Every structure is written in C-alpha cells, then in structure tokens.
Amino acid sequence: MKGPLFYSKILLFGEYGIIKDSKGLSIPYNFYNGALKIDSDLSEVQQKSNNNLKRFANYLAELETSNPNLVQFNLEELTKDIEAGMYFDSSIPQGYGVGSSGALVAAIYDKYAKNKITVLENLSREKLLKLKEIFGQMESFFHGKSSGLDPLNSYLSLPILINSKDNIEAAGIPSQSKEGKGAVFLLDSGMVGETAPLVNLFMENLKQEGFRKMLKDKFVKHTDACVEDFMKGDVKSLFSNIKQLSHVVLDNFKPMIPKQFHNLWKEGIDTGAYYLKLCGSGGGGYILGFTEDIDKARTALKNHNLEVVYTF
Questions:
Q1: Comparing C-alpha atoms, which of 17, 3, 1, 8 is closest to residue 253?
Q2: Distance between CA 268 and CA 263 in Å, rounded?
C-alpha cells in the first residue's frame, strides 16, 4: 500500500498573530511531501513512525469518544494497518516549521475518517471551518494546541487566506514572476525547533499588558498589511511592511530566534538586502526571508543555504 502524497506548507504571514486573530496566509510547498505506506520489514526510522501512529490511533479513539459529533474514524482498519507495519514516509523535516505533523494528520483523515469532507465538493466557509476544527483537534496530539491550519493546507493543497479565526477561504495568490529578482526564501538555521514550549512562552507573555498592546498595535497591524499587500501584488508597500514586521519580531520575539541569527536578522534590516521573519513557531528550523534582489541576498548570506519558494 502507498497512499496519496500530502505536501508541506509555509505560513508566509500570521505566525503567533493568528492565535490573536491577525490575518494569515499559508501556501503549499511541494518540495517536501509525505505518504502513508505499509511494509512488513521496517527500518529503525519507519518503526519509530509506526510506534508514533499507534499512540496517535489511541489518541483518535479518545477524541472520538470525547467529541463524537466532531469526527468518526474507521479505527478498526487503522489499527489493522498499523499492525501490518504502516508508517508515514516523509521527506518533510520535523521541527522546521513547514508542517510535518500537518501532512500526517491530513493523510490519516483522508484515509480513515468516516463521512469526510472532500476536496472535490463545494468548499463553503462552514466546511472549511469544520475541517480546520477537526484538524486542530487531531494535530493537538503533536503540539499541545493547534490551529488546524497546517493540516488544512496540506489536505487541500491550496493557498489559504485567514481573515480571522472564523473567516478563512481558499485563495488565489498572484502568480510568480519568472524574471523578477524579488523572492521569498527559506534559510536553514541548522537546528530543530520545539513548537510547544515556544507557544507556551507566547501564551505566558500575553498575560502582560505591554506585550498584548505591542501585539495589537504593531505585530498584528503589520502582519495584516503584509497579507493585504501580498494578495494585491503591491510589492513596494509589502517590503515596507515586512521591514517593520521584521523589526517588531527582533525586538519582541527574541527567544523564538536562534541566538546566532540575532545579528544576521539586524543586518538585513539595516542594509535592506533582505528581511527575516519567523517560519512557524521559530526556535530553529527554517527562517523565512524576503528580498527585493535575490542576488544581493545570496551575497549577504553567502555562508547560508537559501531555498527560494516564491518569486516576485
């Protein structure tokens, strides 16, 4: 058995902000993907994935009992497949902010959910929100608290525009320019990030009035503006807002930025060669970069590996 492929995702804008109702924009990233497979002779890595699926299946059984109206699974078939040696064969790096658990959640829902909402039907806002809620509950097994957006993106393989918590839509984004020098890129920090502790830290910070004010007046404001600029294709305004956003993150989200990148982050803002922002919860994994001139950014970041994901 080999299931369909589910892709990684990149949250271009909205990390942390969407917890507090900022806008967000998430796009599929087809460079990485994963699929469910069954093999009777498992390697060490595959065995680890298989054990993980066992625990996940137990969690889904509990979820079904505690919230029967949300989602029902064909648990018998799932258990049988896990016993036969099912694992998630994935090239998506874990702890890198590109949705490794999201792709797994999407794959399990796709294969084992009863009465599932499919990609082929008319995806009304109600259906999208229902899917997001189901995926949020499923993915909480991995992260403690999940918005459900990563699995939703992976499941639909479409860009998703988050207007607010209760208003999301599949979105068309401006098509890429093959000749343009502007680019969105991934910068590999070379270390793995842990989502749960950083989300907990963020929730703790929210108890402080000053942090909440900064979030609303600066972080959410610039995030929302970035999403609107990107959707409109207003590159000039986009870069002005990204610069501000990069600054706000450096000043207020230091624990989420690996220490050795603090100076690099500031250099980007000072020189304008590139602007960095968090990709997912941060702490490691990928850092997201935006530049108006990819050659300039490559020169400035010559000791780092850049992966271009979108061109302007």
A1: 17
A2: 9
